[in-house]
Known about the structure:
15 helices, globular
Amino acid sequence: xxxxxxxxxxxxxxxxxxxxxxxxxxxxxxxxxxxxxxxxxxxxxxxxxxxxxxxxxxxxxxxxxxxxxxxxxxxxxxxxxxxxxxxxxxxxxxxxxxxxxxxxxxxxxxxxxxxxxxxxxxxxxxxxxxxxxxxxxxxxxxxxxxxxxxxxxxxxxxxxxxxxxxxxxxxxxxxxxxxxxxxxxxxxxxxxxxxxxxxxxxxxxxxxxxxxxxxxxxxxxxxxxxxxxxxxxxxxxxxxxxxxxxxxxxxxxxxxxxxxxxxxxxxxxxxxxxxxxxxxxxxxxxxxxxxxxxxxxxxxxxxxxxxxxxxxxxxxxxxxxxxxxxxxxxxxxxxxxxxxxxxxxxxxxxxxxxxxxxxxxxxxxxxxxxxxxxxx
Length: 376
């Protein structure tokens, strides 16, 4: 087997943490001499994502291939699947790595079809939360988890980004019948340089997708309640995009916060960090969010919800963690802003973070999983 691989990453939505994860992986894999390509949805993302693709296109020798992919199962899936399969077949991958529910399904099914007609293709799947967020007691959840159990037989390796995610898979889907590994998301060395606040910095920053799963509504409610408690109007910047954005504009207006909250489009996290003193991640569900790692690596104090793999970053029982509840966030905002210096001391140690969550560590472990899958 050659040391250099043809690697194709397949995923639906080129936004948020999955896209960040794939960008970091492809960068490391190209540097290691592998031929790398991407297949993803063409209908998701905006100007920010287009700029990211523009930077990547000249270094990915297998190219960037975008084709419409539906988020949910529907009538358009058959045509979408056929287009995607034809693209992947042309790329002749040694490794087909699917990310998220749709990317994972495509990678494993199409990898299996390719194995019928040609040499071995390693089929790997990283859930990144995905279908694991569904409630197992609902009809939708039962359907998705039944599909996950079925798809496991077409999988050579499962890669989990947090121990929480692996435990959730075991609880909702079952014990993985194939090899699996825990590989934390990782950051580049330059991301561990501190970011300082700009002269007109706001009190608080929310950065992420504008959808209820990520908790922007919790953030806005807590912002309105914490101001009177501290005796002054708090200021905030909310960075991101999503279908629910108009509803959050309405919530800000309804609570009388219009002059105190700025909404900005997606931008690099380190640019956003300069816009406020305290970062808040109020998510209702997560796998292993990059934004938490990026915030701490940049030396920014933050409040985060104790969901998904976030406690694995902070350490269980960290006083910086809360439940996804407006009242708890109000209390923590008030505490942090009343004595910023004392609150900053609650953050994890930067050196230990870099040792556990470096991009080089992540890429090396995933490459090891690729070769192991091809050897089996």
